[in-house]
Amino acid sequence: MNKLNKEKWKKVFYGDYVDHIEVNETNPDKRYTARYVSVEHIETGKFKIENWISEEMPTFSRTFKAGQILFGKRRAYQRKVAIADFAGICSPHIWALEAKKELQQDILPYIMLTDNFYEYVNANSAGTMSVYLKWPQLSKYRFLLPSAEDQKQLVQLFQCIEITIDQTDQQEKDLRSLQKRLVDGLLNREPEFGNLLNARNCDLTTFDEIAECDKKYPEHSKMVERFVGLENIESEDFQIKGFGLISNGTTFTKRFTKGDILFGKRRAYLNKVAIANFDGICSNDILVIRAKSEKMLQGLLPFYISADTFIQHAVSTSAGSLSPRTKWKDLAILEIAVPDLRAQKKILEVFEQLQKTLEQIKTQKQILKHLKQKLLNELLG
Which CATH superfamily is domain 202-339 in? Predict the structure, then answer.
């Protein structure tokens, strides 16, 4: 990358170099076949739109074209910026944007991701429950316009980083897919895990023979500070994402200890399984499960609980219409074939290496994202 010549850059108003395109689609035939995009379909940190609605949305009429920038003007602080790679109809809460004059279309989304841009956006949005940005305010945002040659260089730089992030993201998806196949193989009618499982080292048993649930243990007499609700457990991640402080008030009383498995029994199809990394209390909609050491390794248990066979059984035994819940007594009768502890140890070593590699990839992806934002702020902010 050649040295940027910032002496040739000039300070300009956003509205002088960007148009928001307001073209409505009323043709019934075109509306019937259109793709409809809402703010929720734009993912923070991703330019590609991967989801949309195929059925007509009566309140949507604003059209957009491939190549235009879609920007969520409601709750704009969410940084929802996308590059449309197809034509469609979008929510009235989205602007379809086009660069004009000397501003190149390819660099526009990067200008809109700088911290300076969002400091201005947040300061000029209005409303309480649903803050909203209006065009007259956004049009007055001032930014440094690079020369034509510098714009090309900057786009190449950021696109290179984007490609690397996408490749890392795909690596993570591929590894998670491999892990999922291995996990599901454990609970097949005839368990599979390479050459580590066979009829000679597996015994048919039930879940209550390998695990126990919601028991009181001696360590539960210790003081704890944190509590966990279902919203703190993400699907298929094994990690607790946040917690509350008991000192701030809670109705939860169920105890868990570091290393216990937390399983969301409400809406079990969400596959919310976490390994506790601290002592605390949790919601009654969470089952606290611990392996019986003579039958099952604690480290291997969360993989069994997250397998499709277990989740499907949890769903089939759930009761209730609006918020179905399963019970441990129903989960406990699920029949599975479990290998001996020696085979379990070898299987766990494979999963631990997979988890370690996944964490390394996630860290690499975060480093790349931080680098991208740092460069955005330093070069375009």
Answer: DNA methylase specificity domains (3.90.220.20)
